[in-house]
Each structure stands twice: as structure tokens, then as C-alpha cells.
TrEMBL record:
GO biological processes: riboflavin biosynthetic process
Tagged with keyword Metal-binding: no
Top enzyme category: transferase
UniProt keyword list: Riboflavin biosynthesis, Transferase
InterPro entries: LS, LS/RS, LS/RS_sf
One annotated Gene Ontology cellular component of this protein: cytosol
Pathway: Cofactor biosynthesis; riboflavin biosynthesis; riboflavin from 2-hydroxy-3-oxobutyl phosphate and 5-amino-6-(D-ribitylamino)uracil: step 1/2
Gene: ribH
Species this protein is from: Polaribacter dokdonensis DSW-5
UniProt name for this protein: 6,7-dimethyl-8-ribityllumazine synthase
Biological function: Catalyzes the formation of 6,7-dimethyl-8-ribityllumazine by condensation of 5-amino-6-(D-ribitylamino)uracil with 3,4-dihydroxy-2-butanone 4-phosphate. This is the penultimate step in the biosynthesis of riboflavin.
SUPFAM superfamilies linked to this entry: Lumazine synthase (SSF52121)
CDD domains recorded: Lumazine_synthase-I
Protein family: Belongs to the DMRL synthase family.
Length: 168
């Protein structure tokens, strides 16, 4: 099923983020896309109670470097969740496949190896228009969706492992 709207969220279903600390690692490739994703994520974290002092943001050259950047941020900062922000657009060659596969597997590996949820905020699109539509266009902003995921995962990370403690 195609994406409907990435920007909708119900604050009543989201834990308050005031006590959580977030990292955001942003790819410099396709900045007109990734900056919109980053801004959507930050605005949503703040809207849901996070403070600006509890949001750390680093830039990396491309989506393939998101994995190393997130690893170093996990090692350097005390975080409750990280949002990895990138945009990979199909070109003429198979490079798209390898970048997407590498960043996807790398983020999976980080979620397994470290106790900090890393949220996959990487648009992997056939065309630039698809990316524009999903970074503040007609289909919303994936940065917003990923900020909500980061808050919910931060709550799980900090729960006492009982379902009652996280309100489900
Ligand atoms: N073509 C895109 C890239 N390519 C660059 C790689 O991510 C990486 O920086 C390079 O291969 C050096 O290791 N990156 C994107 O984020 N988006 C693209 O569309
Ligand atoms: C995903 C990429 O690296 C891609 O944009 C590069 O373009 P091309 O495959 O035409 O070299």
C-alpha cells in the first residue's frame, strides 16, 4: 500500500519526550531533502516535549556514512534514541542498490549491537519527485514519522520492561 500521510500523529498516543535525549545524524547528499527531514524531526520532537538542549545533530557526507556517524555518536553521547536521516535517489547505475543495502544493514547492526534505538529515516526513492513528496510535500514528512518512532522507542528503552509502564 502506498504511503498515505507521513506527518499525522496523535500526541495523546505518544509518551512525553521531556526526559529523553536524542541524536540526529544527517547525510549531506540531497540537502534540500535531508534538511527538510531533519527540520520536520526536530519540530516534532520539540512539539512532543523534548528540549533543544537534548537534541544533538551531526552531519556526514552521504547516507553510506550514516552508520559510522551513528556509531560514533552512540559512543560519544548519552542518548535515548538516534534518527539517521538520508535520501538515496536512483541514478544510472547499481550504486543506488549498494548504498541502500549498506545503510539498511548497517542500521540494523547498530540496533543489535548497541542499546540505543536507531531510527531509519532514509528515503530510498526512484525519482527526486518521490523524495520531495515525502519530505514535506503532498505525502507529508518522513522526519515527523521518524521523530514519533524515536520517542516511542526511547520510552521502551527506558521502560521497566512491563507493558503498563509504557502505556500499551
Ligand atoms: N548517490 C547518493 C549517495 N552516494 C554517496 C554515498 O552515500 C557515500 O557517501 C559514498 O559512496 C562514499 O562512501 N549518497 C546519498 O546519501 N544519496 C545518494 O543519492
Ligand atoms: C545512489 C547513487 O549513488 C546514485 O545517485 C549515483 O548516480 P549514478 O548511479 O548515476 O552514478
Amino acid at each position: 500500500m502506498a504511503t498515505t500521510n507521513l506527518s499525522y500523529y496523535d500526541k495523546a498516543t505518544i509518551p512525553n519526550a521531556k526526559n529523553f535525549r536524542f541524536g540526529i545524524v544527517v547525510s549531506e547528499w540531497n540537502p534540500e531533502i535531508t534538511q527538510n527531514l531533519k527540520n520536520g524531526a526536530i519540530e516534532t520532537l520539540l512539539d512532543c516535549g523534548a528540549s533543544k538542549n537534548n537534541i544533538v545533530s551531526w552531519d556526514v557526507p552521504g547516507s553510506f556514512e550514516l552508520v559510522y556517524g551513528c556509531k560514533k555518536m552512540i559512543q560519544a553521547e548519552k542518548l535515548d534514541a538516534i534518527i539517521a536521516v538520508g535520501n538515496v535517489i536512483q541514478g544510472e547505475t547499481k550504486h543506488f542498490d549498494f548504498v541502500c543495502e549498506g545503510v539498511t544493514q548497517g542500521i540494523i547492526d547498530l540496533n543489535v549491537k548497541y542499546d540505543v534505538p536507531v531510527i531509519f529515516c532514509v528515503l530510498t526513492d526512484n525519482t527526486k519527485q518521490q523524495s520531495l513528496d515525502r519530505s514535506g510535500g503532498k505525502l507529508g514528512n518522513k522526519g515527523i514519522e521518524c521523530a514519533v518512532a524515536a520517542i516511542k522507542m526511547a520510552a521502551i528503552k527506558n521502560s521497566d520492561r512491563s507493558s503498563e509502564s509504557i502505556g500499551f
